[in-house]
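Worked example 3 (structure in, sequence out).
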């Protein structure tokens, strides 16, 4: 009797990744501790030059899931390829690159941060986390950690853990969130210049200064 052809088993995290990739979301596996897999020896310390859009730009031909967020992809061939097989077998979670799909995640790490968001930010799609919530907005921006107590901004050049689709209607990224990462300009400090104690014109003045009336 002919035995049925065995169906290749797809790990659960890979199934999730392929579903996201089908919707154009760049994804990558995370190992235990919610961190990316380490770079391979050829890419250690970005010795390969780094993938495009990294802080050290340059081509990277490595087929493995190196370089954290920069390795995120929506290509099913890469995700299911032999170079990523071991990573998916050991994966503890799936991450995605929010900025790569035009999104920003406001990561609220505790109840006080969630309460602040509800008072301050426009409602949008929310995803519960272990200690707080992810608020997801349409629009990308620079990422930054600890913009206030318990609040991180995850968008470009960073990854966010996939915790489900969430609930609510996603809204446009507000200026209130953008302003959280805008650094205030340093105050201009007055410069004190010592002047000669003698009488009369300072010999260091130039005619140009005198024409402008600058003392």
């Amino acid at each position: 009797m002919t035995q049925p052809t065995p169906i290749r088993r797809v790990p659960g995290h890979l199934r999730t990744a392929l579903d996201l990739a089908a919707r154009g979301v760049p994804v990558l596996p995370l190992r235990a501790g919610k961190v990316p897999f380490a770079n391979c020896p050829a890419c250690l310390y970005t010795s390969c030059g780094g993938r495009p859009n990294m802080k050290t730009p340059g081509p990277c031909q490595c087929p493995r899931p190196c370089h954290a967020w920069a390795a995120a992809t929506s290509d099913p061939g890469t995700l299911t390829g032999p170079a990523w097989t071991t990573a998916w077998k050991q994966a503890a979670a799936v991450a995605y690159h929010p900025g790569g799909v035009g999104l920003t995640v406001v990561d609220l790490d505790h109840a006080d941060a969630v309460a602040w968001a509800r008072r301050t930010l426009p409602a949008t799609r929310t995803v519960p986390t272990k200690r707080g919530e992810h608020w997801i907005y349409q629009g990308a921006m620079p990422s930054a950690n600890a913009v206030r107590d318990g609040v991180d901004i995850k968008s470009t050049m960073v990854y966010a853990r996939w915790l489900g689709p969430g609930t609510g209607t996603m809204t446009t990224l507000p200026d209130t969130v953008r302003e959280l990462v805008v650094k205030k300009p340093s105050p201009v400090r007055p410069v004190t210049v010592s002047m000669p104690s003698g009488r009369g014109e300072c010999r260091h003045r130039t005619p140009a200064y005198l024409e402008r009336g600058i003392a």
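Notes: The beta strands are 27-31, 35-36, 93-96, 103-108, 125-128, 133-138, 144-148, 151-154, 160-161, 171-172. The longest helix spans residues 12-22.
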